[in-house]
Amino acid sequence: MSIEWYVVLSSLLFAVGAMGILIRRSPVVILLCLELMLNAGNLALVAFSRMVGNQQGQVFAVVVMVVAACEVVVGLGLIVAIFRRKLPLDVDELRELRG
Amino acid sequence: MEEVLFFLAALGALGGAVGVIALRNPFYGVLALIVHLFSLAVLFLLLSSAFVAAAQVVVYAGAVMVLYVFVVAYVGGGGESAWESIPGQRFLAPLLGIAIFVELAIAVLASSLLALGTDGPDVKAGFGDPAAIGYLLLEKFLVPFEASSILLLLAAVGAIVLAQRKREGESA
User: Fold this and answer.
1) Chain-centroid distance, C-alpha B136
2) Nearest CA to CA, how far is A50 from chain B (Å)?
3) B100-125: pLDDT as tens digits
4) Are B67 and A73 in contact (CB under 8 A)?
5) ipTM of this predicted complex?
6) Domain ranges within chain B, ordered by starting residue
7) What is the band of B83 on the pLDDT scale with cuts at 50, 70, 90?
8) Nearest chain B Cα distance for residue A94, angstroms
9) Would you say A10 and A30 are in contact if contact means Cβ atoms under 8 Å apart?
10) CA spacing 20 to 30 A to B26: which of A55, B15, B41, B76?
11) Which of residues 56-75 of B touch A (CB under 8 A)?
């Protein structure tokens, strides 16, 4: 399989994730869509690292995984905090910071 | 054989991704994301990066998804309201998503990277195995490695601070 297929698949997955963030309004699902986009980026990194024949892109992918894990932990902590304060779990209703 | 595996895994990854954005119940969305992550691990193996594939299964599908399942079970999967703050959001959003894909596809297909159309160079047997990645992390990328471990520590502390119960007499 040529590398092009992997990169096109990764851009397709990225577009699906971005579409999900635009469509859905539940913060949990928005976090899931963020995961989709980060994973699409990971796939592109690993594909390009295979294309160059160099393992450094895979190290980048591992670091992206660490960042994704941190983002999930903080995001889910925020969701639990929102839920404990009995606020609606809907990003369109949580608009106090919008000004 | 490789082509068959690629298309099976690509279908799984795409189906999982569409499931995440289409299923109304967030719990099923998490399960669809697990399918997506396993398919991506297969793709990583096809790209001869064994360590990233293993980390994908262990860290993502194992640890992160368990966290998601617990939080979804805790907050419950309420349906989303039909109220739209932006008129026509349901129709605009897919259009914007398709626009992003077209843009990325043009960028990929029109790039002058000649190696993009090849299978990549032949690599040695140890390409992408844990030992090779470990050497890179501890020699060439030591500072990013330590920075990411500090980031993990900060995220853990932040999550504890955010999600702890309110103490007596303390406002919000």
Assistant:
1) 23
2) 6
3) 999 988 888 887 777 777 777 777 77
4) yes
5) 0.91
6) 1-77, 129-167
7) low
8) 12
9) no
10) B41
11) 56, 59-60, 63-64, 67-68, 71-72, 74-75
Percent with pLDDT over 70 in chain B = 91
* B4 touches A at CB < 8 Å: no
Answer whether B19's CB lies under 8 Å from B35's CB: yes
Contact B162 A15 (CB under 8 A): no
Task: Count interface pairs A-B at CB distance under 8 A.
Answer: 244
CATH number listed for the domain at residues B1-77: 1.20.120.1200
For residue B145, the model assigns a pLDDT of 92
What is the number of domains present in chain A?
A: 1
Q: Which residues in chain B (14-33) have CB-CB distances under 8 A to chain A?
A: 14, 17-18, 20-21, 26, 29-30, 33
Among residues A79, A5, A39, A4, the alpha carbon closest in space to that of B159 is found at: A79
CATH number of the domain encompassing residue A87:
1.10.287.3510
Cross-chain residue pair B67–A73, CB shorter than 8 Å: yes
A72: Cβ contacts below 8 Å, ≥ 6 apart:
A31, A35, B64, B67, B68
Which of the residues in chain A have pLDDT under 50? none
Q: Cα separation of B32 and B35, whole Å?
A: 5
Predicted TM-score of the model (pTM) = 0.89
The predicted model gives B8-16 an average pLDDT of: 94
Domain carrying residue A63: 3-98
